[in-house]
Description:
Layout: H1 3-26, E1 29-30, E2 39-40, H2 44-54, H3 56-72, H4 79-103, H5 107-137, H6 141-182
Antiparallel strand pairs: 1-2
Helix pairs in contact: 1-2, 1-3, 2-3, 2-4, 2-6, 3-4, 4-5, 5-6
Amino acid sequence: MKKQEKILKLSIMAMLTAVSIVLVTTIHFPLIPTAGFLEYDPADIPVLIGAMMLGPVPGIVILLAVCLIQALTVSAASGWIGFVMHFVASSVLVLTASLIYKKKQTTKALILGLIIGSIAMTAVMIPLNLVFTGIFLGAGVETVVGMLIPAIIPFNLLKAGINAAVTFAVFTPIKSILKKYTKSV
């Protein structure tokens, strides 16, 4: 890769990281009233767009930067647990969606990748919540099991689904323009 192409790629990655941090700083709210600690944020949207534009590995690099910055600033109260859960869950979504889209860059592949990624993220969050949410809340596994169906699973489906739908709505109309600037990246 030429120096100019590397600079362009790093610039795009940095810009998407910054947009993600701005989004998580300004937009975060509970989706499930009975579980206020489960807050929606749109931070994964720029990460997903980056992964679709540049590939799965740059998408994960963007995500790692976002998770580190978020863990040290906006979500500092959730500490390492929040970092691990966000990174693992979003990695599953980003990798699944971008790997499916990378194989065949069509609208159908994008939709399929985002749907399967959202379901995979939700599935991965079940064991992660069973392990980490009890520690975070200072409650037992029984408490977390009782929250799975009424709160945790719907929250993760909603969060991933909203982020996937917005990614689709934003990425689809601009992907031909983005290809023009990123085809060599």
